[in-house]
Design goal:
- With 177 residues, the protein is mainly beta.
- Helices cover 3% and strands 27% of the residues.
- The chain has one domain (1-53, 89-177).
- It contains 1 helix and 12 strands.
- The protein has a 7-stranded mixed beta sheet with strand order 2-3-7-11-10-9-8, with no helix packed on it. It has a 3-stranded antiparallel beta sheet with strand order 4-6-5, with no helix packed on it. Strands 1-12 form a two-stranded antiparallel sheet.
- The two termini are 28 Å apart.
Amino acid sequence: MAVFYCSACGEALTGNLNQWTEVLKTDDDHERDPATRLAVPTVPRSFFAIDPEPWGAPYIVHDDPDWGGPFQSRCSSWATDEGEMHSAGPRNTVVLNPYDVARLTPMETADGCCGPMGWSGPNQACRCGAPVGTLAANCCGPHEFHLDPSRTHAQGSIVVPQCSTATGLTAADICRR
């Protein structure tokens, strides 16, 4: 179990949460609430998960111009005039069910048509005013909350998944996927 805190003021941002084994995938065409168009959260209530994939800003042009993959985990592709974009943000971020994070204040963001996409970086602040994480809650993409690893900390037990070489690939190959 772990509790997550604001590093600026020490306020608890969550109650006790158990670690879930993975961040769940979202079927973007199904599993959306008809009224809000929000996806099912990618982490169950009362749990947190570690996302091993890069997530969030900065975004850079992918080396392969024909890549066409997601710009960050659980999202669709994103092309600009420069090429296909992808996240160069941090790996191993803590992902929470948005309903497990209490007493946060939304910050101004310019992304998303029905809610925040999370592209612009932290969009939720602690009651003390410090940005602590990024909510993704738009009509497309995942419904999840990413804690900012440089502005939050945990007390309790957290296991960061290790890359495996069971497939014959190197750890670096697996971690890049």
